[in-house]
Amino acid sequence: MKQLTLKKTEKQIAMVFLFIAILCQMAFTSCNENDSKFKTNSYTMTNDDSTIVNKTDSEWKAQLTPEQYYVLRQKGTERPFTSKFEDHYDGGTYTCAGCGNELFKSDSKFDAGCGWPSFYEALDSTKIKTEIDKTHGMQRVEIMCAKCGGHLGHVFDDGPKPTGLRYCVNGAALDFLKRKK
Ligand SMILES: [Zn+2]
User: Fold this and answer.
1) SS3 for 30?
2) Distance, CA 4 to ligand 1 centroid (Å)?
3) Ligand 1 center from residue 76 Cα (angstroms)
4) 57-178: which CATH number, 3.90.1750.20, 2.60.120.10, 2.170.150.20, 3.90.1300.10?
């Protein structure tokens, strides 16, 4: 009799477990539905400026010129005073040559005399990411495109007012969108 009662309890426990398992399954399924909805929403936002660009090395190589590839993807530095933007003061927006991310306004460009296009501020703080660079026996702050991770140059604290910053950028890493009149 005692054994029978136990068996009955075990059966009840098993039923409870089965019930919990079904509940979990339902919850999981609805989570998945939410997930797929979220993904759909994200997908429709692919034109958003913040969308990260992920390409393979061979895709970059096929897309970029050798100089752009050397600077953007291999963290190279172009020779000073060689950039097409050296004496370029048209009104517009400087974009990333890798992904088109808008990086600097022409209004913030100044002649630093260093041989590379220089800007005292980024178009906004989300466009560029920074990292400490300890190569070549120096400690510098590297700047990269926040969208595709392409190397742009370095930022120094010897720039003019109002920021006191100098974004020293390889011209090969940039493209230019002329302001419409
Ligand atoms: Zn980019």
Assistant:
1) helix
2) 72
3) 15
4) 2.170.150.20
Q: How far, in Å, is the centroid of ligand 1 from the Cα of 27?
A: 40
Binned average pLDDT, 10 residues per bin, the chain of 181 residues: 52 54 44 36 42 95 98 97 94 98 97 96 95 95 98 98 97 95 68
* Beta-carbon count within 10 A of 21 CB: 10
Dist. CA 18 → ligand 1 center (Å): 52
pLDDT tens-digit map of 147-165: 999 999 999 999 999 999 9
Q: Regarding beta strands 140-145 and 128-133, do their DSSP bridges make them parallel or antiparallel, or are they unpaired?
A: antiparallel
Is the peptide bond between 66 and the residue preceding it cis, with omega within 30 degrees of 0? no
Catalytic residue among 96, 99, 145, 168: 168
Tell me, yes or no, if 168 is annotated catalytic. yes
- pTM for the whole thing? 0.72
